[in-house]
Write the structure tokens for this entry.
Amino acid sequence: MSKSQKGRRHRTVDRTPRPVGTAVRRPAGSTPVAPDAVASTPEVPDAVAPVEVAPVPVAPAVSAEEAVGALFQTAVRDGGLGLPAARTWRHLLESDSAGATVEEISAVVGYQPQTIGRHVNGLLKYGMVRESGGRWYPTGRSQWNAAAQHGPAAPALTGAR
């Protein structure tokens, strides 16, 4: 009788997600800067006048309630859009009138283009986005109105499988 493993070994492939987009490449021969070198910068003499910096306008942040509504908290299998689709939705809201292609959203959000395609199709089903010329635009419809029209997406019961 053999003592070796019989049959398929479970998950022999590393299944961690990989980042999307192009990697930052350093020129050949350059070395990364050590954190100690950054922390030990020379002091600026007091004779230098401080430079006034104009305040940068900050985009309004999506409130926690908007980000985690029932539509996004409910899994796709239960009729919702799921939490990953909320990241896609937030990026489309930030792009506003410029819109965004699936590839642009994919590079910023970090999901594969195929996944982003499923997200925008789900958002389209709820009337929250529209497509024009390969670009996706938000319609201005809130997730609360979309969920009310299409029926409330009730969260799955805990412990029920």
User: Anything to note?
Assistant: Residues 83-95 form the longest helix (13 residues). The two ends are 40 Å apart (CA to CA). The helical segments are 35-39, 64-67, 70-73, 83-95, 102-109, 113-125, 143-150.
